[in-house]
Batch of 2 targets.
Target 1
Amino acid sequence: MAAIIDDVSRTFSEYLLIPRLSEKKHITNNVSLKTPLSRFKKGEKPKLSLNIPFTAASMQAVSGENMGIALAREGGTAFIFCSQPIENQTAMIKAIKNFKAGFVRSDTNVSPQTSLKDALKLVSQTNHSTIAITDNGEYNGKFLGILTDKDYWEKEDDFSKPVSDFMTPAQNVYSVKVGVSLNEANKTIRQYRKDCIPVLTNDGYLDSLVFRKDFIAHSDNPHELVDDEKRLVASAGINTHDYKERVPALIEAGATVFTIDSSDGYSEYQKECALWIRKNYGDKIIIGGGNVVAGDGFRYLANEALLDFVKVGIGGGSICITREQKGIGRGQASAIMDVVKERDKYFSETGIYVPVCSDGGLVNDTQIIIALAMGADFVMMGRYFAMTDESPTPKISINGQRYKAYWGEGSNRARNWQRYNEGVISGAMKFEEGVDAYVPAAGSLSEVLDISLSKLKATMCNNGSLTLKEFTENAVLTRISEQSFVESGTGNVVKLNANVNV
Ligand code: MZP
């Protein structure tokens, strides 16, 4: 007879946290959200810790280079999707590694002979009013001067004249040399009261521009996830089919964190893939994998495949229909509780801590909070990030509301057959495990994260915790009845329509 688990599959919305004593020190400013991303021995430090416990899923509609840059700047990481040719994925990794906060490659460039009229046409396309003048009109040509909207008068000037008649010539422009730090560049900006200065090579070629406003933005990102050379950490999804070609190319491009992207990771293929990377690249590279939904799957991946972190979750994703299609999966809360128990057991037996990631199906901030309280070290999300400006899909208006497209990797649109067929050498999908959908556009990543992280920190203070480790150790959770679920919403009041003027 089949083994039947006694308890039903439970989800995060069935639980609430009971507050613990909040001491005076428990204020949100004192909370640290640092969390391990890689395995470590008792008494030692992990190779890498996230500064916020959020990662973005390896999905076409979620993690491109913009998400990679934006989330790393906030302290998390996005796994650049692997359901694309190796050269496209490596180009995204390179873009993340080459990103230098505050140093911007100029996108509004013209040669000195260009008419002012044509230069302004370009400004209307890029929406950037600072024009770099280079000998060949390229972003990296010999720097000849700069033109801003203060250099001409709309009504007075003859727009058919060349920009060389209006620009501030190179010899009169304050500039800095390549290699200067952002702080030094900004000192020059402040000293000469400029809005922008060019960064030039020793031969006078344009490298980048530094804007005053970007320095302010950079100062707002104290939690950036950076490597030893202060470059953003770049992470990538991989599969168990072409890793022998894909991983070397990604490492060459600068990726240092990988996740094996598979719907069911309790497999020999994951072990083979992870051990191959370890053998060829040693311990410096971080390799996560999954997904599993029970303790035995975790132990296999931690102990046999030597993974750095293990992702938990099958069938709970917002775009996922695996449970309907194949009858496989588990309620996310039950899966997390089971795996976390095994992680702690493994730690007490071996002294090795292997972080656990709760992946998929988190439908609101409360569920993120409960997942972390139950012991997930960090979460991975798709829908949440797909809604932000930084996801790769354009905004679209439907019935006056703004949406972004979001589709599963198991949908016919993504055709990521490698994620679902670890052992099968075939490019074909016989049935879908994901859907093609839309999510509401929610604004910039930093705005959306700010709200979620503020709620998480506030709950941690209610729970008497200043770190995520304390949060789990202190957490007391209660299961709620259907009636108390109703009680959790507003009760016996007339809710005012948002349009009513009060
Ligand atoms: P969510 O945050 O949108 O609820 O879920 C994202 C997670 O769903 C991903 O990290 C991945 O584990 C999983 N996923 C991605 N594609 C599919 C699918 O097509 C899927 N079924 O389940």
Target 2
Amino acid sequence: MATILVIEDEFPIRELICELLKIEDYDVIEAENGRQGLARAKEALPDLIICDVMMPDLDGYQVLTELQRQAETVTIPFIFLTAKGTTQDIRQGMKLGADDYLIKPFNSDDLLDAVATRLRKRQTASAAWQKARAETPQDLEILLGRSAEAQPQGRASELLSEADQHLLADLETALAENQLTLYYQPQFNLKTLKLTGCEALLRWFHPQRGAVSPGLFIPLAEKSDLILSLGEWVVEQALTQWRRWRDSGLGEVRIAVNLSARQLRQPQFIPWLLRALEAEAIPPQAVEVELTETTLVENVSQSSEQLQALKRRGIWIAIDDFGTGYSSLSYLQQFSFDVLKIDRCFVQNVAQNNTNMILTQAMIDMAHHLNIRVLAEGVETLEEFQFLKQGGCDELQGYLFSPALAPEVFTEKLQNGFSLPQGIV
Ligand code: C2E
Ligand code: CA
Ligand code: CA
């Protein structure tokens, strides 16, 4: 039976959750604050963690951040409990790597459903992960293998800022010493099920820590100039990869790269990108740039000019994590995007969750009225897939089809075809 760790400082709520889980025969471990929860997570390595966001001392976000830093706890599914239930609040948790959320007050069905779904999804995800691992090239395996050793220990909240400094210094070394890799997650057309493109996602295999999540190190890099050289490296890698695929006759797969606000605001960025495309003889239509609302809102008029300049050259523009930031509909018109990416927090359980269902459908319809292509990200189940298909969504990306893959693996699939998940056709 699965072991579940419940981290909640309010005694009556904790008791209630634990009782409900025990009735369902789960093994339950309790923790009455974040610090205790972190210690129990590390010693028991539970199958699932349910954790309150609002706790004194170490809150739920800090617990999650710390769990994400450790190789052995990073994959444990994490459901957080929040009383606020605002999109920003939920987004913060999801961006840090949480898998699901429950808004207080919730009933026993909500709780048990979320738990059962997460445990079921974990099996799918870990099968996908195992498969990706099995296909991971040897040299990365060696790095991953070493990751189990030498985990830094310590009290999370005290170490956070110091730890961040260390991580940033390590990231700089990683960039200089080629510890970074760009992985590619395939994107498919929902009707034809054909591959339409891929999103380039950074992977960092740290020699001691193992895999470090970009959800953790990108925001950190954004606090320093490192994001500029990192961003440049990502674009260069992606373009080189694209050229290799084309040179080996594997076709012209559209490649999407994530841009950060600082990168876009550099006046020399667009000329640099255009020169790079020209140098490799890459058509601009092969490239899509993904920007978040938060990126754009920082300087609306400058961003708008920059995007127009990219668009005039034929580069595709996608709005990422749509609906999670300032989310104003006027941006959709102002920036004339080509693609709207529906964030994972809406796609999550879209076939069961009424709110997600309504919001997702509204986003699809609205985008289509504006002639914008819609891509749903984080699609994990057949039910989610079917809902999106019926709703008229154009493309999808998610673990149901494939996680992000090492370049060698992606290339192999380009040659031999991507296999579709069971039950799709
Ligand atoms: P994002 O751009 O929203 O990327 C999607 C994230 O969702 C990726 O996480 C991807 O691996 C994950 N994902 C895809 N399908 C599924 C699914 O079915 N289920 C679940 N649970 N997750 C799924 P990842 O790679 O950890 O990246 C996290 C974030 O880090 C990205 O969010 C993006 O904001 C940032 N990032 C990653 N690479 C880069 C980069 O090269 N440059 C910049 N500026 N940011 C990057
Ligand atoms: Ca993205
Ligand atoms: Ca996204």
